[in-house]
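Technical note accompanying the year-one report. For the benefit of new consortium partners, we illustrate the data format agreed upon in the data management plan: each record pairs a sequence with a structure-token string. No post-processing was applied to the example shown here.
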Amino acid sequence: MSEVRWERYPLVGQSQHARSWLRIQADLQRAPSTVEAYGRALEEYLVFCEERGMVITQAGREHVAAYVRHLAQRPNPRGARVRVLDSGAGLANATMHLKLTAIRLFYDYLVEEAIRSENPVGRGGYTPGVASGGGRRGLVRRYESLPWIPSDDEYRALLAAAREEPLRNQCMLMLAYLCALRREELCALTMADVGIDPRLVRVRAEVTKGRRERVVPYSDVLDPFYAAYLRHRRMLSRDSGPLFLSESRRNFGQPVTIWTWSKVVARLADRAGLHRFSTHTLRHLRLTDLARSGWDMHAIAAFAGHRSTDTTLRYIHRSGRELAAQLAAGMAEIHAWRAALMAEVLS
């Protein structure tokens, strides 16, 4: 069961309805990162309402619209570190949609509980076959950008920065790329999930975004690093549970959390001068490499655990295959090169 970290959302904890809704999300086994995102989004909305004397249960569409304006214009908390937003102000389009989704779901709950009659956030919609104007548009227009991936020189810089990291972090970095793992999937790996012969990683359904289990292969480039880490891990714990363990005095021997891994990656990004690099970047890079190497769209979708190939198409388009099919043959060895470079620089 997901544990709610109430100290992170004090206003949510103080609001009867907000607290009840977030508790329900955790009890329904939402992913920890989802509960975290919902909690942060609702906390920010409650702060906004409190500062303006708005009663959250009575807010109308004009109040929600004012909040959207606030999100679009406020100084970005990451300031100069933001590379996607030229002004350094406001939030990314996807982030705004995530925050509004949490608020919409909260108001859905209030409607279901008969606390209010309608949802002020509403939903965008489209009816096939209806001319323009027959659908409903959401509060914020949705934009979809291609995933950012580092250039070859930026990739080298990242690996050079990773040479200073402990063996555990190097293994996590390699597995994140080789198996295209999300941070939740990576941190949730157990000893039993990683096979040595054959080299396969089992990603359990309960830790995935789409709740679909998958088994993916990894390259032999990981072998010496993984063997060395297993020897090191035996000095931390003989337990056959979680694979990656904390060595801090406060959490010694406990599983590495997604927040710890995010801090590790942020430190690497700073050291390499790649502020757009995140825990998800290696997944984007791996799937793009598979597309460049000529993998079929459905095979990439299975590798990634995508429910829909629409998501996978982003990587197919990124590869430029439809514009230059002959490029696929020339890129057939790209994964072997990148994996070998990883082993060379980190060893």
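Partners are asked to follow this layout when depositing records. Residues 79-88, 125-136, 321-327 have pLDDT under 50 and may be disordered.
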